[in-house]
Amino acid sequence: MKTTVVALCVFLSCSIAIGSAVLQCEHKELDIPKEWKDMVDPCVHSMRGQIEEELKAAMQYMAMGAHFSKDTINRPGFAKMFFESASEERQHAIKLISYLLMRGELTSRVSELIKRNLAPKTTSWVTGVEALKDALKLEASVTKKIREVIKVCEDNPTKYNDYHLVDYLTGDFLDEQYHGQRDIAGKVSTLEKLMEKHGALGEFLFDKKLLE
Amino acid sequence: MKAFFTVLSVLLVGVLASEEYCYDDVVRACKTTNKLSTSPINCTAKYGAIDGVEEYLQKYVNHHFIRSFEYLLMSTHYANYEKNRLGFEKLFRGLSDETWHDAIELIQYITKRGGEMNFQTVSNDIISEEQQDANFELYELQSIAKALDIEKKLAVEAHRIHGEATRKNSKFHDPEISSHLEHEFMPKHRDTIRKLAGYTSDLSTLLNGPDSSLSLYLFDEYLQKQ
């Protein structure tokens, strides 16, 4: 009997606690002038798409990092480089997000911004050179997509040239893309020459160089 | 009787051989007269129960990626000009960064134990979440509550993998895996869960009154300094 009473009390006090706590969790609708928000839909749309592209590239690099970490592959230098590239690509996505936020975008449909379809397509490579070549192709395709975003934001059916964004993408993003591509192309060249007569030794030495 | 001993000795030799199969393979490979012979050499890093636990670890990595992106969305939501809560943005960005780096560390761990990563495998309960039209644009208290649930799920999943690795069964018993989880993941989860639970306590008392707007402003300022 006593236990029932105790249980009842616990139940009552519990429901009282919940009942009294009608929390004020939401705030009122805001009335903020919209005139300053001057990005146009086609441009915002292509920027949103680019965020996912950067994350896809990140996951593709992640697969390269995972592949070269395997004991049967054992290329810690390659793995380190690719894991770093993965995190860099993620930073690019975050930079694009920050830019849109600065321009007053991303106030709605944020939940749809990243979908769960980012798993990498290729997950194994025969040699280090092959992976580096894939990385170069991947960078080239990202560059091409950034150029497409620039085109849409410069000239679109709404005839609105988004000078500032175009300048940011050209000066900041493309600059990094071109420098990155030159770096990978140089690595492909060095490694391929190293491996011409001394395949296994060439890749071994190059891998250790990447760890420095 | 004699036959029995013969069988026994054959068995014993078999057992001994299986423990040195890398060495035996190497001996065979080096003796081969035909230099192009490419019989595989069994010298992998695998030992213990990694094969039994690998799939759980792979799923665990993919769950980290999914959570990392969800936290990134939550952080993005708080950084728009209407929400403008930079402290909450920082909190969720921190969680996104942490889950991202933990995923990389887990991949490195799987490969350290001779395993490999599979990016396709995800638990059914995480897949079913997606069909429920996930919403990451939440009010302050709700978003912390959601993060707390996510962190607890990750923590309990680590417990489950730990359980698999501690089963007293040679296929699953692997104290190295359980020790790695214990030392690298569990304390981090404990601290994050405690921190988030503390925030929900604070917010539920702060929001229970007329000053909720001001409270949220000050709480956000506090989060910016963390």
TrEMBL record, chain A:
Leader peptide range in chain numbering: 1-21
Which superkingdom? Eukaryota
The answer to keyword Kinase applying to this record is: no
CDD domains, A to Z:
Euk_Ferritin
Under the heading Pfam families, the entry gives:
Ferritin
Q: Which InterPro entries match?
A: Ferritin, Ferritin-like, Ferritin-like_diiron, Ferritin-like_SF, Ferritin_DPS_dom
What is the catalytic activity of this protein?
A: 4 Fe(2+) + O2 + 4 H(+) = 4 Fe(3+) + 2 H2O
EC? 1.16.3.1
What are the UniProt keywords, alphabetically? Answer: Iron, Iron storage, Metal-binding, Oxidoreductase, Signal
In what residue span(s) does the Ferritin-like diiron domain sit?
37-195
**What protein family does this chain belong to?**
Belongs to the ferritin family.
**What's this chain's function?**
Stores iron in a soluble, non-toxic, readily available form. Important for iron homeostasis. Iron is taken up in the ferrous form and deposited as ferric hydroxides after oxidation.
What name appears for this protein in its UniProt entry?
Answer: Ferritin
The organism encoding this protein is: Molorchus minor
TrEMBL record, chain B:
Which InterPro entries does the entry mention? Ferritin (IPR001519), Ferritin-like (IPR012347), Ferritin-like_diiron (IPR009040), Ferritin-like_SF (IPR009078), Ferritin_DPS_dom (IPR008331)
Q: Which UniProt keywords apply?
A: Iron, Iron storage, Metal-binding, Signal
Can you tell me which residues the record assigns to a coiled coil?
Answer: none
CDD domains named among the record's database cross-references: Euk_Ferritin (cd01056)
Q: Which residues form the signal peptide?
A: 1-17
Chain ranges of the Ferritin-like diiron domain: 47-207
Tell me which PROSITE patterns the record gives.
Answer: FERRITIN_LIKE
Top-level lineage group:
Eukaryota
**Keyword Signal attributed:** yes
Asked if the keyword Signal belongs to this entry, the reply reads yes
> What does the protein in this record do?
Stores iron in a soluble, non-toxic, readily available form. Important for iron homeostasis. Iron is taken up in the ferrous form and deposited as ferric hydroxides after oxidation.
- Do you know which PANTHER family this protein is assigned to? FERRITIN
State the family it belongs to.
Belongs to the ferritin family.
Protein name (database record): Ferritin
Which organism does this sequence originate in? Molorchus minor
